[in-house]
Amino acid sequence: MECDELSKASAMASATYHSNSKARLISAVTEDVLGGTLTESYTYNYPGEIVSHITSYAHGTVTDALSITYDYDIRGRVVESVSTLSLGGST
């Protein structure tokens, strides 16, 4: 199992992470050895719950993206999530 994890890690060229003032991850950008870029971004509400999560992969002029938004009740439970998938959009 450790060999599988190592081979996955060696297939990535670089990764950059950004966090906000509350140490919450707001973006992660990973570039693979084939020239593609995987980008993940997060937005949070005041209590720290994830309000949106966008994952996109761009290679050349084509970008695929998955966007998920979340709504919470007063107790912080997810009451609704909406997903949008966009395949092959030009950048």
CA distance, first residue to last residue: 37 Å
- Sheet of most strands: 6 strands, antiparallel
How many strand segments?
A: 6
Spans of 5+ residues with little confidence (pLDDT < 50)?
1-8
Tally the structural domains: 1
| SSE succession | HEEEEEE
Mean pLDDT across all amino acids: 86
Write the layout of secondary structure elements.
Blueprint: H1 2-10, E1 12-19, E2 25-32, E3 37-44, E4 50-59, E5 62-72, E6 78-90
Antiparallel strand pairs: 1-2, 2-3, 3-4, 4-5, 5-6
What does this structure look like?
The protein has 91 residues and is mainly β. It has one domain. It contains one helix and six strands, in the order αββββββ. It has one helix spanning 2-10; strands at 12-19, 25-32, 37-44, 50-59, 62-72, 78-90. A six-stranded antiparallel beta sheet has the order 1-2-3-4-5-6, with helices on one face. It is flat. 0% of the residues are buried.
